Amino acid sequence: MRFLPVGLAAGSLLAAMTLAATAPASASPVAKRQTTVTALGYNSTDWTYLQVPPAANQPLFADRSFDDSGWPSGQEGFGTVNGTCKWNNSTDVKTHWAVNTDILVRHWVHIPRDAQQVRIQGTVDNDASVYLNGHLLQTVKSGNCNAGAINVVVPANYLDCCNLLAIRGHDYGLATYLNVAVTYVKPTPAA
Predict the structure, then answer these.
(1) Which site in 10, 12, 108, 191 is 20 to 30 Å from 21, CA atoms measured?
(2) pLDDT at 22 (0 to 100)
(3) CATH code for 31-189?
């Protein structure tokens, strides 16, 4: 068996200690991974909705305290089965939304307090105003059913554990479609 000279062994030990002391925090065994979780999926049920004329004033429908108990309940996608959008079919449209009208939709969404990067994504034909807990997050001018036109990350200070997602969809004629999902990133300890 051979031994390293004392000076070389001491130098190696000192170098190893220096590297360990300056290692970045990301090298720590408790580093976190991220998992994307769906809080509200596409084609979800239990939406309350109301179809209104385009000029109808419904200023408070996006507020958490608004009473929608008299509204019908339906499933996404909202839309028509005739049109040029690839989702205008009986498989993807679950609740009828008449052309040349606006649709007001509301859904409660549970999001854990440690959730990060809460994102609302979806498709609308033609336009939409997207709200969370009464805050206007995005106004979308989609035109003809552009997939992913609704795409917004919710500011953390707008979140609560029980959140109201409200959307006003607007149609210009021919066909309609609206379908959204809500996801968030949840940090998880590394294995």
Answers:
(1) 191
(2) 41
(3) 2.60.120.260
C-alpha pair distances (Å), 180 with each of 77, 101, 149: 8, 19, 10
pTM of the entire predicted model: 0.81
Percentage with pLDDT > 70 across the chain: 82
How far apart CA 126 and CA 105 sit, in angstroms, is 15
Q: pLDDT per residue over 145-158, tens digit each?
A: 888 999 999 999 99
Q: How confident is the model at residue 84 (pLDDT cuts 50, 70, 90)?
A: confident
Q: Rounded to the nearest 5°, which phi and psi values hold at 132?
A: -135, 125
